[in-house]
Design a protein that fits this description.
The complex is a heterodimer of chains A (529) and B (309).
Chain A (H helix, E strand, L loop, with lengths): L1 H15 L16 E5 L20 H6 L4 E3 L5 E3 L2 E6 L5 E6 L13 H7 L15 E8 L2 E6 L6 H5 L9 H7 L14 E7 L3 E6 L20 E5 L4 H10 L4 E2 L7 H6 L3 E7 L2 E6 L10 H9 L3 H8 L30 H10 L3 E2 L5 E3 L2 E2 L1 E7 L2 H16 L3 E7 L1 H9 L5 E7 L5 H6 L15 H12 L4 H17 L3 E5 L2 E7 L3 E2 L11 H4 L3 E2 L2
Parallel strand pairs in A: 1-10, 1-11, 17-18, 17-19
Antiparallel strand pairs in A: 2-3, 4-5, 5-7, 6-7, 8-9, 9-10, 11-21, 12-21, 13-19, 13-20, 14-15, 15-16, 22-23
Chain B lengths: L1 H29 L15 H10 L6 H13 L13 H36 L4 H15 L2 H15 L12 H30 L2 H8 L4 H30 L2 H7 L4 H10 L3 H29 L1 H6 L2
Helix pairs in contact in B: 1-12, 4-5, 4-7, 4-9, 4-12, 5-7, 6-7, 6-10, 7-9, 9-12, 10-11, 11-12
The chains are: A alpha+beta (529), B mainly alpha (309).
């Protein structure tokens, strides 16, 4: 792993030297075909079985449609469900299904499909997505009702997940565990043609496709005939493929690559809002962070604006709380927002008894304010960690950085060996608060090691005792505000999603609908005529 | 004689494999980390985590887990990947052809060119030819593979456009990775060949052959090379295991699948059955490579056969 990190760093430096080699772009895209490099976070899928897999990539969204689609502003829109209704007590959801939809193998999509599909999740790693659905009732061939064991205002979010793409039931049942490896049947705009694990996935146009969601401009079959998704782990290589016409679209472009890409005449770059944040959890059980004043001082020492401007050149946005901006539960009391205030940070440390020493490090009872700062061996996170270390130093906190691989660092969290850490998450739902701060998940994922009675009560209300969406938002907001008041972390940055494409070969819509670059955009992509 | 020696050596593989399986299992399981952390997703409950730990038998003692695994291996079942969710044998089978293609060709290329360069270096002692090969050996031994890979891509794929930047679609995509890996291999083989030739060349019997008036080519091809090949064969045999898993960084840069890449991915995710299965495969390949080397040496050198009697 260390070698790969070194390799990543050196390869990036090699990529920066590419500028000395002058050349133009070749237009190699074949008529109706586009080749897409998957982002690093989506590499390594071993199956296109949405029910049993724990790792799916963008191609999955092209093979399968979902009942509901989510937009970039987190709102929900009809797709295979044309409308839905939630009962007042939240214990029943009725969905009207789209007529005339067929799977790639000709099987008809209807209410029976849903009744057969939901039970397939039982005993799989993804069973939690449908845990609140007690049973599915077929009302008529195009109407289905979910009878809930408890109200689940998060149901639409789950239904819009890639993991809830709907597979053809005949194919799914007949292939069993082998489903998704060589055969994957959905109702989506593209059919799986070829899947070579770790190398590439080829999908071809579903010519019968007449049911895109309203998030796509194109309301018929996709413009592209074939899309090849390639797995290129090294970002520099992927960039050179874009440069030489080997690929047409590059997903997940690191922000530090943007200046080079933007300098190229034939490269288009789309930057869309991200779906996560980078943050620094504070271990509340480890002295001196068991003192709330020291926690608050640590959080206030972080200059989010400087991070955005110096590390990310203004791409992305500042993070001042734990959720992404588009989530309504992030609309907290402004007084609770975490914003850089060096003077207050220093005053709080003074109040806590940590006096500034001659060497710029604070002291208390003869001991220096030296703390552990953990990070992962990811070049972006390491760079961010170094900036955080410098900002902490400015208020007199000496943070010593230790770098771990992703599995080892989780083990360190579980052993409670940590104090501060720089990490990130990618999740566009408020329930991320429960994931990282629940008292039942101490160590990892609850790296802050935080638990108190009020938090648990607010968490339960938000997670399982909300009947409606509005109530869920209000409950999560209250939970979020309480967590903010306890200074359990310092928000650092909200990353953006960057997509680059070869303007000579493909056209990509200016505005991307949906939280990620998925099927709703792919049906609108066309080759340059 | 050779057959008896080969069977003896082949049987040795069984106890050695068992010992290696214990070492592999312990190393993998004692590493910090847990595959379940890579499996659970936001939204799943702590109870789901416990259930998954039990489902994959990770709540059992290491002793029980080892015996379950090794008894599966005995029946030819490599088990099911935890995070990658496929049978381990399938994952290995999917990646093995790419490793064999790349590693095999790089092995052949580096062996042939390395031998030739080693002989050239020996034959052109104290001339610019020897200096050139020595320089090449120094460069080949020190330039990191991934750096060379990027330079190859920049020059041959981006600048000249002769080969694709990455991928594994056809033979053209193999050229740059084979050259990249081969570069280091050539240096190694050339170095060993040159040193072996120099050492054998100083032997009394070679001086005698010169005194008897045999021509230089006859001495080289009929007497020197056969004797000097012994250490070269040992090095080549050891590299057979490397064929399967030694190209991780080059696979990474060129976006190629392979056993090395599978191993690194599985290791990062602590997917125990995949790591164990892949490492066992690599260990077997090294053992088989060593066996081939030993048999070849025994065939070439009667003293080795005699020593094992």
């Amino acid at each position: 792993m260390r070698n790969l990190t070194k390799l990543n760093l050196l390869s990036r430096s090699a990529m920066l030297s590419v500028g000395i080699i002058a050349m133009g772009f070749s237009s190699m895209a074949m008529a109706g075909e586009a080749t897409v490099a998957l982002p690093a976070s989506e590499l390594g899928a071993t199956s296109y079985d949405p029910i049993r897999s724990s790792n799916l990539n963008a191609a999955t969204s092209l093979i399968y449609d979902r009942l509901v689609e989510q937009d970039a502003d987190q709102s929900f829109h009809p797709h295979l469900a044309v409308s839905w209704e939630e009962s007042a007590d939240g214990l029943s959801w009725t969905f009207k299904l789209r007529d005339g939809v067929k799977f790639h193998d000709g099987e008809v999509f209807n209410a029976e499909t849903i009744a057969s599909w939901i039970p397939d999740f039982k005993d799989t790693e993804n069973a939690f997505l449908v845990a609140a659905i007690e049973k599915v009732e077929v009302v008529d061939p195009l109407t289905v009702r979910f009878v809930m064991s408890r109200p689940e205002p998060n149901l639409l979010y789950n239904l819009a997940s890639t993991f809830m793409g709907i597979p053809g039931q005949k194919s799914y049942d007949s292939l069993g565990e082998d489903y998704g490896v060589s055969t994957a049947v959905g109702t989506g705009p593209f059919k799986l043609t070829k899947f070579e694990i770790g190398l590439e996935t080829v999908v071809t146009r579903n010519d019968d496709y007449a049911w895109p969601s309203a998030l796509s401009t194109n309301q018929g079959a996709a413009h592209l005939e074939t899309v090849t998704f390639r797995e290129i782990p090294d970002q520099s290589t992927a960039f050179l493929e874009l440069k030489t016409g080997g690929i047409d679209v590059l997903m997940g472009v690191p922000t530090d690559f943007l200046p080079i890409l933007k300098a190229e005449e034939n490269v288009g770059v789309i930057t869309m809002a991200g779906t996560g944040i980078s943050y620094m959890p504070i271990n509340t059980t480890s002295a001196p962070f068991d003192d709330i004043k020291v926690r608050q001082a640590t959080a206030l020492a972080i200059n989010q604006k400087a991070i955005l401007e110096s590390v990310y050149k203004g791409v992305g946005s500042q993070a001042n709380h734990f959720l992404i901006d588009t989530l309504p539960a992030g609309d907290v009391n402004p007084k609770l927002l975490v914003s850089f205030d060096a003077a207050k940070s220093k005053a709080l440390l003074d109040e806590a008894g940590w006096a500034m020493g001659d060497d710029g490090v604070r002291m208390k009872d003869g001991a220096p304010l030296q703390v552990k700062l953990f990070t992962k061996n990811d070049s972006d996170l390491k760079r961010l960690t170094q900036v955080v270390q410098a900002q902490l130093k400015d208020v007199g906190i000496d943070a010593v950085i230790t770098v771990f691989d992703s599995s080892t660092i989780r083990d360190e969290y579980k052993k409670n060996n940590h104090q501060l850490a720089v990490r990130s998450y990618d999740w566009n739902n408020s329930d991320i608060l429960e994931w990282f701060f629940s008292g039942t998940r101490l160590g990892y994922p609850n790296v802050s090691m935080w638990t108190d009675e009020k938090s648990e009560m607010l968490k339960d209300a938000a997670m399982t005792k909300s009947s409606t969406s509005a109530e869920r938002i209000a409950n999560f907001k209250a939970y979020h505000e309480h967590l903010l008041s306890q200074h359990l972390f310092a928000p650092l940055y909200q990353p953006a999603q960057n997509i680059a494409f070869n303007k000579d070969t493909v056209t990509v819509p200016d505005a991307i609908r949906g939280p990620r670059f998925r099927s709703q955009t792919f049906v609108d992509i066309d080759v340059v005529k | 004689m050779i057959l008896k020696y080969s069977i003896q050596r082949l049987l040795m593989i069984i106890p050695v494999s068992l010992a290696i399986s214990v070492v592999i299992f312990l190393i993998v399981h004692l590493l910090p980390g847990d595959p379940i952390d890579n499996l659970i997703r936001v939204g799943s409950s702590p109870e789901d985590r416990i259930a998954l730990t039990a489902k994959y038998g990770l709540d059992q003692s290491l002793f029980e887990q080892y015996f379950l695994w090794i008894s599966q291996i005995m029946t030819g079942d490599f088990g099911q990947a935890i995070v990658l969710r496929r049978p381990v044998a399938d994952l290995i089978a999917q990646n093995l052809p790419y490793s064999l293609q790349l590693g095999g060709l790089a092995f052949l290329f580096s062996s042939i060119v390395g031998l030739i360069l080693g002989i050239v270096a020996w034959a052109s002692q104290k001339t610019w030819g020897e200096q050139f090969v020595k320089g090449f050996i120094l460069l080949g031994s020190t330039v990191p593979g991934f750096w060379l890979a990027l330079l190859m891509i920049l020059f041959f794929a981006v600048n000249l456009g002769w080969f694709p930047v990455s991928g594994a679609r056809d033979w053209t995509a193999l050229v740059l990775p084979v050259l990249t890996i081969g570069f280091g291999g050539i240096a190694l083989v050339a170095r060993v060949t040159r040193v072996a030739l120099l050492e054998v060349g100083r032997e009394d019997f070679i001086t005698l052959l010169h005194a008897k008036g045999l021509s230089r080519p006859t001495i080289l091809f009929r007497h020197l090379i056969p004797h000097a090949l012994l250490p070269v064969v040992t090095i080549l045999a050891l590299r057979i295991g490397w064929i399967l898993g030694g190209a991780v960084t080059v696979e990474f840069v060129f976006g190629r699948p392979g056993l090395g890449s599978l191993l690194i991915r599985a290791l990062g995710q602590r997917d125990y059955p995949v790591v164990q299965g892949s490492l066992l495969m690599l260990a077997l390949a090294v053992m088989i490579g060593t066996l081939i080397g030993d048999i070849a040496q025994a065939a070439m050198d009667p003293r080795i056969r005699e020593a094992t009697k």
